[in-house]
Target: protein disulfide-isomerase
Amino acid sequence: LVLSLAWLGPALGDEDKDEEAVEEEEKEKKEDEVLSDEIKEEDNVLVLHEHNFARALSEHQLLLVEFYAPWCGHCQQLAPAFAQAAAELRNESSPARLGKVDATAQTALATEFGITSYPTLKLFRDGNRTHPLAYTGRRDSQGIVRWMQRRAGPSATLLQDTDTAAAFVSSQDLVVVGFFKDLRGEAAQAFLEVAAEMVDMAFGVAEAAELFQAYGLSADTVCLFKKFDERQTNFPVDPARGLDTAELTRLLRVHSLQLVMEFTNETSNQIFGAKIPHHMLLFLNKSSSEQMSLRDGFRAAAGGFRGEVLFVVVDVAGHGADVLPFFGMTPADAPTLRLVKMENNRKYQMEQDNFSDSAIRTFIRAVLDGKVKPHLLSAEPPEDWDTRPVKVLVGKTFEQVAFDETKNVFVKFYAPWCPHCQAMAAAWEELAERYKDREDIVIAEMDSTANELENITIHGFPTLHYFPAGPGRKMVEYKSTRDVETFSKFLDNGGTLPVEPPVTKAPGNSTGEDPSAPGTDESRDEL
Model:
């Protein structure tokens, strides 16, 4: 073996020298490429840098640029969809193209365009680099393609006569038509802005007098045409205030939904994307005709709450089975009703389920008026909850432990399925071992999918809160790096981190951290 190694030694040394020479040549080649304004492509995506950026803007009317970091997990997740969208746009000969910039290497571009997180997507139109438009669409291939298509062509179809208007209105289950006396006026332009953003709806626009008459209109109006519920919903433009784009967007989102939605894989994005503040849920088993008949009263109650409360039917034996644990329910609990306040995920339950439309209306009104207390979930405490280093809290025991005036209590709120929680589990156990003999410090955890608290809302996992000893029911959220040493500094310093020398910032990142690194908001799973 020794002889063999001795024989191979000189050859291995020569190979190392050859590799070094090759690496140097490749480095010089890359530097030469960067200095050139030549535009190369990777998977139909333009590879951009400081020296070819201006050329790319001059050659492409619409250019959506992703500013990324090679180490960023979110960028890596976006890459396949971004490449697929680039291919689709190129195949249809669209004037829209996609490009990418490594913002960690191209620091001048990152600074010029104010890149502070990754990925950041900006649209450059007609070569203008001073006022790029922030990307607002979905981050999947279809969402990117639709968003770009809407900006590449007219955002709304011009309807010139009754025949084209009738054909457009009947072409899809849901379309939006803006009727304006002057298509160059401010209201019409605001409507076109909305059309450019709401890429999941078809928009038309009309100014012909015969079309105003055909649809019973006398003034500027936006009409939503549906093949369900109300067939035509009118939103007149206020002559004094004009057309507010945010308000019109909200109204279209709200009224584009069916009066009563069924929770499915296809409708979930619509249900949560409408941003209606309350959801009234009817849990039933669709295989039971008796339970299905309860939908009539549920639907009858829905009409008076359009835009304020969204009515949703959840099949406990179908797609809805996955959400039952969130409510502490099993399929055997159906049929039953729950109202959810979306801003804090508070759930409300009737004392006894009554499925009549009048009872449902009365219950909803009482919740909206603040007359009903939320229904809080709590698991049963394990028998050994306080004998191991990490104390296991549940809803029923949280108050007595967290607000014990003789203890400093550090609590991890987690979800069993959360990968970020799983990643820090070992560090939390080690922390508890380190402080298990300290009478004044308690390290605890609570499964927030099975336990809820009246005055503390958990929006993402893991969330860490510190409850210092003493009166006043104080609470401090921990937002720093999630490792044992930093946790220890925080505890030993009384619930704050000692001041340390500033960290050098990474180029193109205002925090100096990877937005997806442990200890930052991006490394939490949002509810």
About this structure: The longest strand covers residues 62-68. The radius of gyration is 29 Å. The domain at 391-493 is CATH 3.40.30.10 (Glutaredoxin).
